[in-house]
Amino acid sequence: MSTLNVDKVDPSTGTDLEIGTSGDTITVPTGAGLTVTDEVKTNKISPATGTAFALGDSGDTFTVPSGATITNSGTATGFGDMTPAFSVYKTSTQSIGNASATLVTFDTEVFDTDSAFASNKFTVPASEGGKYWINSWIRSDGWGAARMLTKIYVNGAQKVFLENDGAGGSYVSSGGSVILDLSATDYVEIYYYHNQGGSQNIGGSSGDWKSFFEGFKLLGV
Question: Using 50, 70 and 90 to split pLDDT, how confident is the model at 184?
């Protein structure tokens, strides 16, 4: 194979330049750089070796223009997946003392994408600070009270409470959803409060999600 040394290649006529013929392989050797400062059109990009393909470098920005569509037929990881995310619930009853906010225990995990739920609390993993959707509902087990509060605690202090007047009902749930701005290492717990005389049970069973706690990180906010 001979070497052709040239500083520039232009089309002999017009403005179209063709390199090679159908079936040819054009190779840019290791250590050589190929720089294109204008539009590149191709039907497929594949890795030169192996199965990993990197698009751009750290700090680069890739823009999908208005009207364009991205279609994914494979598995998307690392973006667009609303994680960290978790969902847990109770499978047994728990006694809650009168007029005293008590930490709710959860014994069954449905899923926990980042292993961030432990010891009845969700802890924001490192580098995962942001806005989180948090949802919890706690059910009374055969009693109702004038005040029934599901309390969301952040870092050991009450952040918000979700109230339901359970008077006249025997199996009543209190709870709801909030969006919290959380930083890495912040932790979220669920507490419960009632004013129905002595200690009362909140519900749980092996087959039903009567009392549960869940959440996930929001994207783009």
Answer: very high
